[in-house]
Write a structure and sequence with these properties.
The complex is a heterodimer of chains A (320) and B (444). Chain A has 320 residues and is mainly alpha-helical. Chain A has 15 helices and two strands. The model of chain A has no long low-confidence stretch (mean pLDDT 88). The chains are: A mainly alpha (320), B alpha/beta (444). The interface between A and B is large, with 39 and 62 residues.
């Protein structure tokens, strides 16, 4: 007993085995099927893009830690995950320096300047994607054609829909759009591969069904109403679900713990908002794709949604 | 199978001693009996240094309405009266008794069994009060006060708390198995204070032997046994009431507001001893366990037995060096900094644990994952409370239901960022109480 050093810390003295690292690396690993599908369709160049995004994200985080004399956080997995998500949002033929610039915006400006992990308001990878989209609109929207021999590029299905109308898409089947092999950013190409990864996250309980389902359900309902009104102008809701970044956004970006509401009802409202904005932008906006903008706009509402939820929760505690 | 409505966790049970019969622990060479073993004011010492005391003699008189008597756990001589480390973390006035080895009862105590049915209620309550019975589950609320609720509150259900949802602890489990009649008679005595009240015993599924035995033995008394799903914090008063009756104890309400009264297993047995045998509360059953003690046991130890004596009785410390000495369970117990703290009326277990992850765990930023909110059995937002407390904005915590937190620690348990949420919540409570006190003092 004499040589026992007793630790006088506070309870509880048992803790669940989970950590930031586990969560971040598991979510990153859940994106492997999507990465694999992209390599299959677009060739190995996207691996270079992926490596640039991951290493520059972790690198910028490390540099920021050094400059600000913080404890290093670049290995906690959050920077790596941001890198992976950023890469999945880019066209596979994007110049590598642009990808690195995107990583800088994501890590330094959107994440660290707002206080680092847990304090950023906007999803870093998405904000970086939108930054790149606005800065380099041509490079960011020339999507390589799957299995292309040379550097052939084309617009994405949603881009075609926006510029040329529904008839131009008549040759594309829904299954094709869902399984992969359509033009798009490399994470968007195969919905099937994304769902496989999302299933892992559901099983690990790292994401709940609330955000993805309210998000996708809202897009489905909104586009469905217009499809019913005039199917010759508006694409079917199934087409909207299978194309673009909807699945990637709904399962992997909007569910980001840091930038989505904490409570269940808050998440429901958030998902509905994301879905509504996505559908409105796709149908009536200037851009063919609206998922990124929708999520970012809803990110800004998260503090408000949390406040609303806390406020109604606090009514329970009034005595008398 | 029944359970409470919202929140809850299920930590690894680690109930290694469920099958170990209660061992009578010999009286150690020195007993340290604190005058504070209940909520409320500490008792006032009735003895002086060098006084001879008999076993069961009252050595501390209750000071005030919510206070309780303290008795000599054995016969012997008062060695000293001084401040000594208390399992609650503070220093408390403590009477040290050197046993004379005779273990002689004071005349008139430990009498042959009496039929409690012939005793009037006032007499029963007086005996409970004189015996210094307090809630032995940890609250330490004086039993005679609890059993005399306001006249306008009608109790229709008396619930025995056989949940024992804290990991490691098995003392109540063994009491249910080995002191079955005492527990049942104790319950019958308590229920006699509330005419027409039904008695329900809530026992978690991980004690099937106790459920079977009680179902059989409780039948003649007309008591009902309910099997509960193993889930923490089911032993919390509000959770147990919700699990057993489906009623919810609302904000600012007490169990008697919904017609319920909850009793701990050990308390029921002690009530029997006090009323039928005129035995004051001088010993209790507790679990000695953990990965750093050689022999894990359930022991009946005298109040005042120091943890170092428990170590000796349980074969010494194991090869693993203890770095966590916990009084109580691992979820709500308190880490001790000394082996010389004594067993009190509310010590349900003493754990000797080697665990490096707790010391290594550093608080990381909140990821806003919402798990704390999901597991909170009180329906609070621990992350909001924790943030406010950490930022020093403790006064704002009241509007988020701070006072409703029962400090079960489920939020800290699940937090992937290892935030000490329940600690920050307790901290806010302390600071707020302090602010209030100062405001009263300065006349605002």
């Amino acid at each position: 007993m004499e040589n026992s050093k007793l630790l006088a810390s506070y309870p509880p003295y048992v803790r669940e085995e989970d950590s930031i690292e586990k969560i971040m690396y598991t979510v990153s690993a859940a994106l492997l099927p999507a990465i694999g599908a992209s390599v299959y369709y677009f060739g190995p160049r996207i691996l270079a893009l992926l490596l640039v995004c991951v290493f520059s994200s972790a690198g910028f985080e490390y540099l920021f830690n050094r400059v600000r004399k913080q404890e290093p956080t670049f290995l906690d997995g959050s920077a790596v995950l941001t890198g992976v998500l950023l890469a999945l949002n880019l066209p596979s033929n994007l110049p590598l320096w642009m990808a690195a610039l995107g990583a800088f915006v994501a890590i330094v400006i959107v994440k660290q300047l707002f206080g680092g992990l847990g304090f950023n308001i906007f999803n870093p990878a998405l904000a970086a994607r939108v930054f790149l989209l606005i800065s380099f609109p041509v490079a960011m929207t020339s999507w390589p054609v799957p299995f292309a021999v040379d550097a052939q590029t084309a617009a994405s299905p949603l881009g075609i829909l926006k510029t040329e109308g529904l008839q131009a898409l008549s040759s594309m089947s829904l299954w094709q759009a869902f399984s992969g092999g359509i033009g798009g950013s490399f994470g968007e190409t195969s919905g099937l591969a994304l769902l496989l990864g999302a299933a892992v996250l559901f099983w690990k309980r790292y994401i709940t069904w609330i955000i993805p389902f309210s998000f996708i359900g809202m897009v489905f309902a909104f586009t469905g109403v217009f499809y019913l009104i005039d199917p010759s102008v508006y694409a079917s809701p199934l087409f909207h679900m299978a194309t673009g970044g909807l699945l990637l956004g709904a399962f992997f970006m909007a569910t980001d713990m840091v930038t989505s509401p904490v409570s269940k009802r808050g998440q429901f409202v958030f998902g509905l908002g994301c879905g509504l904005l996505t559908a409105v932008i796709r149908l009536f906006g200037g851009y063919p794709e609206g998922v990124s903008f929708a999520i970012l706009i809803m990110n800004a509402f998260v503090p408000l949604i949390d406040r609303w939820d806390s406020y109604s929760n606090s009514k329970n505690w009034k005595v008398g | 199978m029944k359970t409470f409505r919202s929140g809850g966790i299920h930590p690894e049970e680690n109930k290694f001693t469920s099958g170990s019969p209660i061992e009578e622990m010999p009286v150690p060479a020195l007993l340290a009996v604190p005058l504070l073993q209940h909520i409320g004011k500490p008792a006032k010492a009735l003895v002086a240094v060098n006084d001879e005391v008999k076993k069961g003699q009252c050595i501390g008189e209750a000071d005030g309405f919510v206070s309780a008597r303290i008795h000599a756990p054995t016969s012997g001589k008062v060695k000293k009266i001084e401040k000594h480390p208390h399992p609650g973390g503070q220093f408390a006035q403590t009477i040290f008794i050197e046993p004379d080895g005779k273990d002689e009862w004071l005349e008139g105590l430990n009498t042959p069994e009496e039929d409690f049915n012939v005793l009037p209620a006032e007499e029963k309550l007086l005996r409970i009060k004189n015996a210094g019975i307090v809630g032995m589950g940890g609250a330490g609320f004086p039993a005679h006060v609890k059993f005399s609720p306001p006249k306008d509150k009608k109790i229709d259900t008396l619930i025995l708390n056989g949940a024992e949802c804290e990991p490691y602890l098995t003392a109540d489990h063994r009491l249910l198995l080995e002191n079955t009649d005492e527990v049942l008679k104790g319950l019958a005595i308590i229920s006699s204070f509330f005419k027409g009240a039904g008695v329900v015993m809530g026992i978690e599924e991980n004690k099937p032997d106790a459920i079977a035995l009680m179902t059989e033995k409780a039948a003649p008394y007309g008591f009902q046994v309910v099997t509960l799903k193993a889930r923490y914090p089911q032993g919390g008063e509000k959770q147990l009431i919700n699990a057993v009756t489906g009623r919810s104890v609302g904000n600012g309400q007490l169990p008697f507001d919904v017609g319920c009264m909850v009793s701990n297993v050990a308390t029921a047995a002690a009530v029997y001893g006090a009323v039928c045998r005129t035995r004051p509360l001088i010993d209790r059953v507790l679990t000695v366990s953990g990965n750093a003690i050689k022999k894990r046991k359930n022991v009946r130890a005298r109040i005042g037995t120091m943890f170092s004596d428990l170590v000796t009785h349980c074969g010494g410390l194991g090869l693993k060096r203890t770095n966590l000495l916990i009084s109580g369970g691992p979820m709500m117990g308190k880490a001790q900094y000394s082996f010389e703290v004594p067993v009190t009326k509310t010590t349900s277990g003493v754990l000797f644990i080697k665990e490096d992850r707790i010391a290594a765990a550093k608080e990381r930023p909140c990821l806003r994952c919402g798990r704390c909110e999901e597991v909170c059995a009180a329906g609070l937002k621990p992350w909001v409370l924790g943030n406010l407390s950490q930022k020093g904005e403790t006064e704002k915590t009241a509007e988020y239901g701070l006072s409703q937190c029962m400090e079960c620690g489920s939020c800290s348990y699940v937090c992937p960022s290892k935030r000490d949420l329940v600690h920050w919540i307790k901290y806010a409570k302390t600071i707020n109480a302090d602010i209030k006190k100062r405001a009263v003092k300065s006349g605002n």
